[in-house]
Structures are given as C-alpha cells and as structure tokens.
Amino acid sequence: MSGPVKPPRRFVARPRGVEAWVSAGEGERTTSPSRSANTARLTIDVTPELRKRLKLAALQRGLTLADLVRAMLAEAFPAEDQERAP
C-alpha cells in the first residue's frame, strides 16, 4: 500500500528577476575587518562551560569570540615559529 509519489523538494526557488537577484547581494558587507579573503574555517568542540568563559572574556575585552580566539592562536603560534621549523 504505497501512497502517491511526491516530487522531490527543492532547496531554493529560482528568482523571478535575475537582475534584481544579482544586485540584491551588493549591499554592505558585514564581515569582520580582521578576516581576509584568505581565511579557513576551524571547528572545535568545547564544553559549554569553556564556551561561556570564552564569550565572557571576549565581551570584557570588547571583542567578538572569533577575534579573541584568533588573537589567542596568533599569540600561541607566532609567525616566526614557521621560519624556524625544519
């Protein structure tokens, strides 16, 4: 007993006006100035307690969580370490 076959769902409907759709993406960028075009995403798992402490530390310093973690990583792994590596 199978029911009627449903057509597959689509993720996004096609835009009605291609020109309007393309120009809609030309607004102000909201990315952080510390991010450049040459970035890579890094995903780590932390406990909820550590995440809370990191967010609080970032807030107290007036930074975003991402900027705080970038600064911590840059301090822990300075660029001159790469030059000394064999």
UniProtKB/TrEMBL annotation:
Transmembrane segments: none annotated. InterPro entries: Arc_rbn_hlx_hlx, RHH_dom-containing, Ribbon_hlx_hlx. One of its GO terms (biological process) is regulation of DNA-templated transcription. Coiled coil: none annotated. It comes from the Bacteria. Pfam families: RHH_10 (PF23807). This is Chromosome partitioning protein ParB. It comes from Sphingobium scionense.
